[in-house]
Task: structure prediction
Amino acid sequence: MRFKVLFSSLLTATLLFSFGTVMGASLEKIEKKVEDLAAELAELKGDAIDDVKPLDVDLSGSVNMGILLLNDGRSTGDEQEVFIVDNDNASTRLRVDAAGDYGDDLSVGATIEVQFEINSTADITQNQSALAGSNNFTRRILEVFFESAKYGKASIGHGKTASDGSAEEDFSETSLGNCSIVDGVAGGVYFRDKNGKALVTSFQLKDAFMNLDGLSRDMRVRYDTPEFYGYTLSASVLDGGDWDAALRYSDDLKDVSIGAAIAYAHARQIDNFQQVSASIAALHNPSGFNIAFATASKQLTGSAANVARNNLNYYYVKLGLLKEWFSYGKTALALDYYKGQEIYVNDDSSMTYSAAIVQSVDKIHTQFYFTGRNHSYKDATSTEYQELWAFLAGARVVF
Result:
């Protein structure tokens, strides 16, 4: 409207200039009016252009490399036991975030996150003849989102499903070394036959040690409600029809920080199953003492083979201590224990425990870590499996 008024005024002034002598107006005053209106019109156009601002773009990422030593009971043979690895608990990755505000209560943005893992702890094996991995970038997050403090957040694209992370509430800050993803340190390796010491290559460690953490990341539409007294409800529908929902709670109660989550997932595309996962964690801020607990149960459905499978289930407990003993960064210590049942096949049992330390050096944005984890496995066959130790030391640089 203002533009139209200015344009009409400019046209009127021009006509007045043309007929100035007839109207008896001053030529100099008319010329001045035309110049002022033209300047104001140019300023208005400039303001309109200035209102269209680019999104704020942030580039971040991390590189996480370490040395993994296996003690799997080998007595002879030339299989590999020492590896230079990318730690799958927090893989090497790049991330781009773009976001901007539209009005007082709407943020619009997009996220691109990819990882590049070389010799990942999730993929290495004792008998590999070359570096493990695909030698290229793989997708983690490719999504757009719309977020409002009043109405919540809607996301579409490849990203975290509603149930992702529901089994991973944790305040210990030792996830580089130990967390409920207990296969993260050496998930790709094989157990050995306790008697003949040969590698049992019919399954990998990660097949028998799962944390059943929802539907992970996938192509989905997701909605998160606004936080209400610490509670947030989320739901997502995946490409193909799988869906999940989760309820989360996060708050500080005096000196104690609490985080909890419970989720239900229903999948029918590739693996037909229904799954419930949950976790709770607490941190006593003055002392740094923290505790976490996670559990999940998965029921396979659909095919006759699935129906014949018992429900997969596990529980996980963790005790940690978070301190600022040194001026250059926090020190995090933790012990954990995991017990799984029916994870790989009926009537099997998987057990692991570990200790971990993570030392942050804030000035160089680096975390140094060390962990030692013991794994043992039993099933209904006559095979006795040698227990397996994995020791991982490394550093993650964050930028």
